[in-house]
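for the recovery benchmark. tokens below, seq after
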């Protein structure tokens, strides 16, 4: 296939080299004449392991060239890949997408002349809403129609500098975001030799995914560094600790704790995190990331409270009071926190928790329950039916499939879901926290 690649930086050059190696004929486009000249001499404008060799070989096979003439590049190709830089604005408020929109304008001009279906793949990192804007800019500037005359497909790039060629062939997945079947087919075709699952997801989810992935990578790095700093203060070998930490593929390095839901709680996690932060602070060490986890968790409880308050109703039903499902442990329960705050603000409450049997609650759990909610016996009901009948707003803190039928049967009551049940998105009385 004849492909034009806009932007000959790290991402553009790696895509150029690897796609040429797959047998495609590539023309690179850049505003930087030195980069263009470099490619035309068979050299790589950027330094990455293996890249120079691939470009040299593919140049000698006449599969790669470069130009500053964007019109010629669009006219002579069937598909364009946008790899231009999207740096952070100096205000730090968003990514600067001016390069993306400059290329969009150029592609529009090319399409008016070319009058043949063209696929545009975006590999640059963008902000939510960018693809829609590109499509509408192209439609308005050319009079052409999305899906009929052109297609836009977002394919986030997951390579890391230093291992970019290896990463190009071995990404975690190939994500395709587009509303065009023809565009998706073209993208699948050019990335077919990549060793990874191909996932077609919505455009908006694709747009945010790369930002979310990088945010998580930053969290991991900062977490390890804060652990390193704490260990050093206590004369503990941080490398050993994190090596063992990473061997836990069940809870640590796993999908556990990575589903959006409600705040954490319980008798262990909150106290241990607090103790670790306090120990670090006592050693004169700041651990802003760990500390902010406590702030973030508290904030999430307030979000739930504010959401309940926004409905301006007084009778509130709570589904699940223990700190999580399938336990009767109330200690550190975030649901308990919200319940107490509701009572303190004059709301009337009823609580349903299938695991809460007062005769079985003993020891510290009982003490905590009596101190936190002394009148809990008057608040507890034995069935979901009783709870729903009493409530104007039902707040679901635990996964409870049994609640679904009530959401359908009581359209006049609001159901706030903090834990993400499926299939109720279309119901007006069903409010998912996310
Ligand atoms: N570098 C990485 O490791 C990496 C990894 C994944 C994703 N990304 C994303 O990919 C995109 C590109 O990153 P990069 O590191 O390759 O950027 P880069 O800064 O190395 O290269 C960008 C290139 O785009 C060119 N350019 C700018 N405006 C142009 C225009 N109007 N026409 C033609 N060329 C133009 C520049 O001259 C430059 O050569 C960014 O959105 C980045 O966030 C980068």
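predicted aa per position
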């Amino acid at each position: 296939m004849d492909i034009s690649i806009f932007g000959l930086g790290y991402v553009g050059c790696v895509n150029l080299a690897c796609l040429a190696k797959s047998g495609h004929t590539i023309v690179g486009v850049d505003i930087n004449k030195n980069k263009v000249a470099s490619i035309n001499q068979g050299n790589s404008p950027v330094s990455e392991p293996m890249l120079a060799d691939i470009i040299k070989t593919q140049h000698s096979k006449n599969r790669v060239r470069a130009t500053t003439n964007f019109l010629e590049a669009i006219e002579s190709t069937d598909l364009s890949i946008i790899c231009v830089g999207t740096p952070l604005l100096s205000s730090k408020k968003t990514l600067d997408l001016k390069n993306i929109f400059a290329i969009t304008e150029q592609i529009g001009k090319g399409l008016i002349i070319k009058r043949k279906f063209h696929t545009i793949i975006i590999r640059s990192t963008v902000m939510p809403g960018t693809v829609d804007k590109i499509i509408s800019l192209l439609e308005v500037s050319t009079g052409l129609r999305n899906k009929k005359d052109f297609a836009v497909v977002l394919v986030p790039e997951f390579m890391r500098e230093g291992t970019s060629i290896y990463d190009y062939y071995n990404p975690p997945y190939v994500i395709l975001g587009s509303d065009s079947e023809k565009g998706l087919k073209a993208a699948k075709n050019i990335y077919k030799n990549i060793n990874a699952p191909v996932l077609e997801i919505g455009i908006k989810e694709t747009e945010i995914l790369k930002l979310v992935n990088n945010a998580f990578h930053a969290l991991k790095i900062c977490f390890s560094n804060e652990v390193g700093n704490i260990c050093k203060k206590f004369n503990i070998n941080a490398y050993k600790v994190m090596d063992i930490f990473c061997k836990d593929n069940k809870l640590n390095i796993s999908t556990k704790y990575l589903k959006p839901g409600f705040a954490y709680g319980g008798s262990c996690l909150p106290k241990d995190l607090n103790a670790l932060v306090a120990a670090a602070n006592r050693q004169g060490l700041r651990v802003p990331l760990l500390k902010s986890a406590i702030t973030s968790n508290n904030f999430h409880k307030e979000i739930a409270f504010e959401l309940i308050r926004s409905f301006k109703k007084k009778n509130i039903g709570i589904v699940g009071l223990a700190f999580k499902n399938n336990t009767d442990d109330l200690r550190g329960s975030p649901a308990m926190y919200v319940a107490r705050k509701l009572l303190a603000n004059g709301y009337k409450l009823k609580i349903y928790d299938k695991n809460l049997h007062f005769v079985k609650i003993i020891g510290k759990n009982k003490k905590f329950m009596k101190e936190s909610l002394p009148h809990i016996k008057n608040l507890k009901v034995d069935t979901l039916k009783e709870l729903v009948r009493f409530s104007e707003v039902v707040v679901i803190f635990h996964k409870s499939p049994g609640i679904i039928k009530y959401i359908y049967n009581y359209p006049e009551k609001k159901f706030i879901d903090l834990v993400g049940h499926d299939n109720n998105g279309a119901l007006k009385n069903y409010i998912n926290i996310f």
